[in-house]
Amino acid sequence: MKIFVGLDCGGTKTVALASDKSGKIIGRGLSGAANPLSVGPNRTVENIISAINNAVFDIKKPDFGGIYIGMAGGKPAMLKEIQKRLKLSTYLKSADSIVVDHDLRIALYSGLPKGDGIVVIAGTGSAAWGLDLDGNEVLVSGWNHLLGETGGYELGIQAIIAATRAYDGRGPKTVLLENIIEAYQLDSFEDVSLVIRNSTDSPRIASLAPYVIDAAKKGDKVAFRILNEMIDEVDLSIKTAAKRCKIKGLLKVVMVGGMFTMDFPMIEELTKRVHKWNKKVTFVSPREEPVRAALRFAKSQN
């Protein structure tokens, strides 16, 4: 029996969904982050294989058909590198086909099956993507969370920076200082530099996002500023993508990622901003998990 697998690889987790040729779901597997820009190519490949293995755990010798991977941090050269490594791996080298793509395509088609619009992903990092009138891909942002992508990481790192300024007396007081002590279970805020040491701590930094949103809702001015700067950046990404895709009339925008599921009226705030430059905008929620779109693409490879 041929097994088809679709994967959605993000900066926090990796999800794999496996099915037979008829579409019957065989299993679902989870693993850690698989964004090569944040965790490196080696760990990315390890977590992709781990997620697939978890999805087909009950099958002794899986016979893989098509495998389609939507991956965050998907710049062309890196996509090719990850694809090469997977094809050479002992576990997957017999697969009929392995396609490694950026995660924006599966995100778009999870909300707009015809692909007639743009998608914005805002999770650990963020990016906007669509196709112009000539069928050319348009990508806005997506450089990686260390190079200015807005999203959960940006909220978290800005919260930490604001807290260090408040602690020193260089900036205004903010409840985020106490929130960080609580979140990281610190004896003293000064220990934060021992907890956060390098870019591979991105999931831990992004985990502070709910604290920022909660503080903003409760009136903390610093948290409110950080959150609104993020929303402004998402608006700018949408505007830039729409302009480069030459969309002048009705604009459909699929919203995907953890930032849009937080307990805050993100869509309402975005709508206010987008309406300043386009009154004909429709925000679309995914009809399904992006990993299901990936599974459909996996089956279409054969």
Mind sketching the topology for me?
Blueprint: E1 2-9, E2 13-19, E3 25-32, H1 36-55, E4 63-71, H2 76-88, E5 97-102, H3 104-111, E6 118-122, E7 126-131, E8 137-141, H4 152-168, H5 176-183, H6 192-195, H7 202-206, H8 209-217, H9 221-244, E9 251-256, H10 266-274, E10 281-284, H11 290-300
Helix pairs in contact: 1-2, 3-11, 4-5, 4-9, 8-9, 9-10
Question: What brief labels describe this structure?
Answer:
5-stranded mixed beta sheet, alpha/beta, ATPase_BadF, Nucleotidyltransferase, domain 5, single chain, ATPase BadF/BadG/BcrA/BcrD type domain-containing protein, 10 strands, ATPase_NBD, 302 residues, 11 helices, 2 domains
What does this protein structure show overall?
This protein has helices at residues 36-55, 76-88, 104-111, 152-168, 176-183, 192-195, 202-206, 209-217, 221-244, 266-274, 290-300, and strands spanning 2-9, 13-19, 25-32, 63-71, 97-102, 118-122, 126-131, 137-141, 251-256, 281-284. By secondary structure, it is α/β, with parallel strands linked by helices. It folds into 2 domains: 2-108 and 289-300, Nucleotidyltransferase, domain 5 (2-Layer Sandwich), CATH 3.30.420; 115-286, 2-Layer Sandwich (Nucleotidyltransferase, domain 5). A 5-stranded mixed sheet has the order 3-2-1-4-5. Strands 8-7-6-9-10 form a 5-stranded mixed sheet, with helices on both faces. Residues 5-285 form the ATPase BadF/BadG/BcrA/BcrD type domain. It holds the Pfam family BcrAD_BadFG. This is ATPase BadF/BadG/BcrA/BcrD type domain-containing protein.
